[in-house]
């Protein structure tokens, strides 16, 4: 039993190290050797658990994606059940999308900040965005798009999908936490304060979707 626990601990250490390095440097600039060194393990162990670098990258990305998908789908289901038999409101749908990501105790964990940085990198990457975001998040996102179509029956599919693209882009920049917001606001707003930006984003994105629903 002790041996199994050690193996699990080392595997998690490799994933945590990979998450931190990929978030900071992207995919190309990181090596398996650097990940192993940060995790405090031999590179052979990283190879044993994960194989090639691209396989480790994907597993690192998908580890927390499953958690986020669960949180958001639960929030979406709750808001749809509350509104039934009517469609959920646009605001409640956007809130269900953003609240699990931008609020909660997990934001204080360094691992989650690293993961959000990794999401920002992947979602803006031509090499990884279409492939890995599709694989990890599309099934859950399709449920939100379906709910938005129900809430906005007059909106065209083009408007809904471009609206979601704007939402995804805004969230990607929020996840990147680049510090630019701090500079623009001269310190009045902090880019790492996702909870502080949560309601601002809900209001802004809701207004955008409601506008396209009236065109």
Description:
It is a single chain. By secondary structure, the chain is mainly α. It folds into two domains: about 1-50, Orthogonal Bundle (Arc Repressor Mutant, subunit A); about 65-210, Orthogonal Bundle (Tetracycline Repressor, domain 2). Helix content is about 75%, strand content about 0%. Helix 1 packs across helix 2, helix 5 (about 90-100) runs antiparallel to helix 7 (about 130-150) and helix 6 (about 110-125) crosses helix 7 (about 130-150). The longest helix has about 30 residues, at about 55-85.
Q: Which structural traits does this protein have?
A:
single chain, 215 residues, mainly alpha, Arc Repressor Mutant, subunit A, Tetracycline Repressor, domain 2, 2 domains, 10 helices, globular
């Amino acid at each position: 039993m002790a041996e199994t626990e050690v193996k699990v601990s080392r595997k998690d250490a490799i994933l945590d190290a990979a998450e931190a390095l990929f978030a900071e440097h992207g995919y190309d600039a990181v090596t398996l050797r650097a990940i192993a060194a940060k995790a405090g393990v031999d590179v052979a162990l990283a190879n044993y658990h994960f194989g090639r670098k691209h396989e480790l990258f994907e597993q690192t990305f998908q580890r927390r994606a499953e958690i986020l998908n669960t949180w958001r789908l639960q929030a979406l289901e709750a808001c749809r059940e509350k509104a039934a038999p009517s469609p959920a409101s646009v605001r409640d749908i956007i809130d269900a999308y953003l609240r699990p990501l931008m609020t909660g105790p997990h934001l204080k964990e360094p691992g989650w900040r690293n993961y959000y940085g990794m999401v920002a990198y992947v979602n803006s990457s031509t090499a990884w965005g279409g492939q890995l975001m599709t694989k990890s998040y599309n099934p859950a996102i399709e449920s939100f798009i379906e709910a938005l179509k129900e809430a906005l029956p007059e909106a065209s599919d083009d408007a809904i999908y471009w609206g979601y693209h704007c939402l995804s882009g805004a969230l990607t920049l929020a996840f990147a936490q680049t510090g630019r917001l701090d500079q623009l606001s001269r310190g009045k707003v902090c880019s790492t304060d996702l909870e502080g930006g949560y309601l601002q984003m809900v209001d802004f994105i809701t207004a955008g979707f409601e506008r396209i629903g009236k065109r």
